[in-house]
Design goal:
Blueprint lengths: L5 H18 L3 E2 H11 L8 H13 L3 E8 L2 E8 L4 H22 L11
Antiparallel strand pairs: 1-3, 2-3
Helix pairs in contact: 1-3, 1-4
Length: 118
C-alpha cells in the first residue's frame, strides 16, 4: 500500500479528531493515534507531532475542552468536544462529508451515491 501523503493527513486532522470525539466522549492523544491506526488497519498513522498542534488549536478555538487525570503517577490530558460546541462540530463534519462527496464525484464520477442530508 502506498503511504498516505502527510499533507493530506494534516489537512484532515481536525475532521478525524472531531469524528472520533463525537463517537466517544473523552480521549487522550495517544488513544486517538491508536484508534486511527486501528480503524484504518494501519493505513493512516498520526504522529504526536502532528496531532497535538491540531488538538491545541481546536482547544484554543473553544471547540474542545480538556480535563487532566493522573494515571500510573502521570498526568494525562483528555479531550472532548465542548458541550456548547456540539452543533459546531457536527456542522464542520457535515461540511467535510459534503466536500468528500464532491471530491469523489471528480475522482470517480460513476461511483457516486446520494449524499445524506442532515
Amino acid at each position: 500500500m502506498t503511504p498516505i501523503n502527510q499533507g493530506l493527513l494534516k489537512g484532515s486532522l481536525h475532521a478525524i479528531i472531531l469524528k472520533l470525539l463525537s463517537d466517544s466522549e473523552w480521549m487522550y492523544g495517544y488513544e486517538i493515534t491508536q484508534k486511527v491506526k486501528e480503524l484504518t488497519s494501519g493505513g493512516l498513522r498520526i504522529t504526536e507531532g502532528a496531532l497535538y498542534p491540531a488538538l491545541y488549536k481546536l482547544e484554543a478555538e473553544g471547540i474542545l475542552t480538556t480535563r487532566t487525570q493522573v494515571v500510573d503517577g502521570r498526568a494525562r490530558k483528555y479531550y472532548a468536544i465542548a458541550p456548547d460546541q456540539q452543533g459546531n462540530a457536527a456542522e464542520r463534519l457535515s461540511q467535510i462529508e459534503q466536500f468528500l462527496y464532491h471530491l469523489q464525484g471528480i475522482l470517480t464520477p460513476n461511483a457516486l451515491i446520494k449524499l445524506p442530508t442532515s
